[in-house]
Specification:
This protein is mostly beta strands and about 120 residues long. Helix content is about 5%, strand content about 45%. The chain has one helix and seven strands. A four-stranded antiparallel β-sheet has the order 1-2-3-4, with no helix packed on it. The protein has a three-stranded antiparallel β-sheet with strand order 5-6-7, with no helix packed on it. The two termini are about 30 Å apart.
């Protein structure tokens, strides 16, 4: 990745107790930084191109309230299924009739970040 591709396109500050800075890049990456120390926590690339915006929200799931981050951009990388048949047949793949790289997309992220919570504090 060329350093000129690392332009910041959007940011979102998650307030305490997590204090995480979400940074969207022109490459489609989302970086999570500890907002206190600016130490990188994790990097993810699910958008194909620039992350256009991010917003925090809450959703009611049964009795629980879940904190979410929603990101929007052009295109996304479909996740490979975790099943033993990693090669999808055309009729099983919901993206086989369209091109996920050329459509607007909204992705939903768990704001609580269970796998990396230990690195935040």
């Amino acid at each position: 990745m060329d350093t000129k591709d690392l332009r910041v396109t959007c940011m979102l500050l998650q307030p305490p107790p997590q204090s995480v800075l979400w940074v969207g890049l022109g490459t489609g990456h989302i970086l999570l930084l500890n907002a206190t120390s600016m130490v990188p926590i994790v990097a993810a690339k699910r958008h194909v191109s620039s992350v256009k915006c991010m917003q925090m929200t809450r959703a009611q799931v049964g009795e629980a309230t879940v904190n979410l981050v929603v990101s929007a951009g052009l295109g996304f990388h479909p996740r490979v299924p975790q099943s033993s048949s990693a090669d999808l047949k055309a009729h099983d793949n919901p993206f086989s009739k369209g091109d996920p790289e050329n459509c607007g997309s909204v992705l939903v992220w768990d704001q609580c970040l269970p796998p990396v919570q230990g690195q935040i504090r």
